[in-house]
Design goal:
The complex is a heterodimer of chains A (321) and B (295).
Chain A (H helix, E strand, L loop, with lengths): L7 H4 L19 H25 L2 E2 L7 E2 L3 H7 L2 H40 L1 H16 L2 H11 L7 H8 L13 H14 L1 H11 L4 H9 L4 H12 L1 H17 L2 H7 L10 H10 L4 H36 L1
Antiparallel strand pairs in A: 1-2
Chain B lengths: L1 H8 L16 H28 L3 H7 L11 H10 L1 H32 L5 H13 L3 H14 L5 H25 L3 H9 L4 H12 L1 H17 L2 H6 L8 H9 L6 H34 L2
Helix pairs in contact in B: 1-14, 2-14, 4-5, 4-14, 5-8, 5-11, 6-8, 8-11, 9-10, 11-14, 13-14
Classes of the chains: A mainly alpha (321), B mainly alpha (295).
């Protein structure tokens, strides 16, 4: 989850000054405490990651030895329509998991804090906040099953039954585009919304109520107060939410596996599911590794861009003060 | 920082003074209604799952998904419970998530002790290196790990999943705890050191007890995150007897024999354990979330 990078002074680890129990052997002796963690990291992350990169240059069915084929997988990926579909669908996942939840979450958090919390009491606010947060704690697989059951094709799916009661014909929600992708997106909005709501509500506690009162006296309406005070103060949280949710959107796997299996005809394919399919269904391990590597590169680039942009905004802000 | 302090000391954030609770304009009621409608939409699927889990298939066919059950029918729940051997799956999930959360907290603490308190050289890079485990798509590790576990005989063994998630969760724990320990009161460490305590003793007798509230937040988070994981358990736990709750339920989805009420019951049984955690740890969860984000 949170890969927070906030105002520099806070996120960066403490400055490298010589410190505390320094008597025997200086800080070097602390290395020994890193050994178990580092050994595990080596075995579970570093070695497999390098191995996976090597596999991208091979053709391998998972048995016997991998056959070295140079850049063939990398050439194939450039002209692979399914691969490009999967990344286009990542953009849709970003809309469903980042753009919509952040905007709606901001509105809900502001309403809960400002209107519900202030006028109707904190308990009502906390209760509603918990309600919005509920889908977040569900295992994503179970969330997928819940929705998969609701949109079940034929007459016995819950949604189709409701349609039937209204006199409308049953609809094959997952069998065609664009409804299959829309169903997937709605699920992700439902699952994700609680995260920004909770984070933004916590952030709003930092806003000094006197600022609001002063603005109110100056005749600023709610929207003006919201854009000029609230939005600027909770910007670090907006940044954290967009970064963590973008990474999650790029990596999404469970709901696709459960609800659509990438279908109909590959139309809801996402990179993580595509790689999984190549690994375990089609047994094209080298090609699966290539897709996973591209996904990794995209995640790293997106993280670097986010952090860079955030840092430069911070610098500008400081220069402006 | 504010929130980090909150999880270290366990004090809730400063509440904003709330005035004018009585002055409610019509527009306030309208806005309240809007938020409530949103909340109802969010819990609507939970309602559907709940009411339909207790219906007989006939009842479902005649009364539709929205109505309350005519009579309580446990057929769907029993059918699902027996087919997946639910207690066994719950036990697997508890075992995996429990062992992972304890091991990951210990590893995080050892790492953070070296990084945050020991302030070893190049610590920013070391934190980044650890954080990679959390950031990378698991697919990029999946096949090599699958092959490694197969060759050492750990494939289809809960310990394969335990090892992987210990590393992944400890990565986040190292990141969070390192900055918490970076602000650990120096005076206490110096005093312990003057009293002749070794580093090992300082870690277990000073740092551990003082940071226990933070560690317990991490523990709960690791437990729930591991419980909810899907891809790695799906790949590494092939046989029925080793599966976790989410995997067991999803495997059954392909089963054409499952009628609609049994599917609903399976979703209900998948939700209940998490719902229990949620009710028990609600406060810790919200505190932890904000701590993770607002650091």
């Amino acid at each position: 989850m949170s890969l927070a990078t906030r105002r520099e002074g806070r996120t960066k680890l403490p400055p490298e000054e010589p410190s505390i129990p320094q008597r025997r052997g200086g800080t070097g002796a602390y290395w020994i405490y890193l050994l178990p963690g580092f050994a595990l990291l080596l075995v579970v992350v570093i070695v497999p990651l390098v191995w996976n990169l090597y596999l991208t240059f091979t053709k391998w069915k998972g048995v016997r030895t991998p056959e070295f084929i140079g850049l063939e997988n990398w050439q194939k990926i450039l002209t692979d329509g399914d691969f490009w579909t999967s990344f286009t669908n990542s953009v849709w996942m970003i809309i469903a998991m980042v753009v919509v939840p952040t905007i709606v979450g901001l509105i809900v958090a502001a309403l809960l804090f400002d209107v519900v919390g202030r006028k109707f009491g904190g308990r009502v606010g906390s209760f509603l906040r918990a309600t919005y947060y509920l889908p977040q704690i569900l295992p994503i697989a179970v969330a997928g099953i819940v929705i998969g059951w609701i949109v079940r094709p034929g007459g016995d799916g819950a949604l189709n039954q409701i349609l039937g009661a209204l006199g409308l014909p049953a609809y094959d929600w997952l069998g065609q585009m664009p409804s299959a992708l829309i169903v997937l997106m709605v699920v992700m909005v439902w699952v994700q919304l609680g995260y920004p709501v909770v984070v933004f509500m916590a952030a709003l506690q930092r806003v000094d109520p006197e600022l609001y009162e002063a603005a109110e006296l100056d005749g600023a309406n709610w929207l003006q107060r919201f854009t000029s005070i609230t939005a600027s103060i909770i910007r670090p949280e907006i940044f954290v939410v967009t970064l963590t949710c973008t990474i999650a959107a790029l990596k999404v796997f469970g709901p696709v596996y459960i609800i659509t299996r990438g279908g109909p005809a590959g139309a809801t394919l996402v990179p993580a599911y595509y790689a999984y399919q190549e690994f375990f269904t089609k047994r094209n391990v080298g090609y699966g590794a290539t897709i996973a590597t591209v996904l990794t590169i995209v995640v790293v680039i997106v993280s670097i861009i986010f952090i860079r942009v955030q840092n430069s905004l911070e610098r500008k802000e400081r220069a402006g003060l | 920082m504010h929130a980090t302090t909150a999880i270290v000391t366990g004090t809730p954030g400063k509440a904003r003074p709330r005035g004018g609770m009585t002055k409610k304009r019509p527009v306030d009621w309208l806005l309240l209604a809007l938020v409530v409608v949103g909340a109802v939409l969010v819990i609507a699927p939970f309602y559907l799952v709940l009411v339909n889990s207790f219906k007989s298939p006939v009842d479902y066919a005649t009364s539709g998904p929205l109505a309350l059950p005519e009579a309580l029918d446990f057929g769907g729940i029993i059918k699902f419970w027996e087919r997946v051997n639910f207690p066994e799956k719950v036990w697997n999930s508890i075992l995996i998530a429990g062992v992972v959360s304890v091991l990951a907290v210990v590893i995080s603490m050892l790492n953070a002790f070296a990084i945050g308190i020991g302030r070893i050289r190049g610590r920013s890079w070391i934190v980044l290196l650890f954080l990679m485990a959390n950031l990378l798509p698991q697919e990029a590790l999946l096949y090599p790990l699958y092959f490694m576990f197969k060759s050492v005989g750990l494939y289809d063994n809960v310990w394969a999943v335990i090892i992987v998630f210990t590393v992944i969760q400890a990565a986040f724990g190292t990141y969070l705890l390192s900055s918490v320990y970076g602000t650990f009161p120096k005076e206490i460490l110096e005093a312990a050191s003057l009293d002749g305590a070794s580093r090992w003793q300082i870690l277990w007798r000073v740092v551990f007890p003082i940071s226990r509230p933070t560690l317990s937040v991490l523990l709960i988070f690791f437990f729930i995150w591991t419980w909810n994981e899907f891809l790695i358990p799906l790949t590494f736990l092939a046989s029925n007897a080793n599966q976790t709750v989410p995997v067991a339920i999803s495997v059954l989805q392909g089963d054409r024999l499952m009628d609609v009420t049994t599917t609903s019951a399976s979703a209900l049984l998948g939700i209940i354990p998490t719902l229990i955690f949620f009710l028990i740890f609600q406060r810790t969860l919200t505190r932890g979330i904000t701590a993770g984000a607002v650091k």
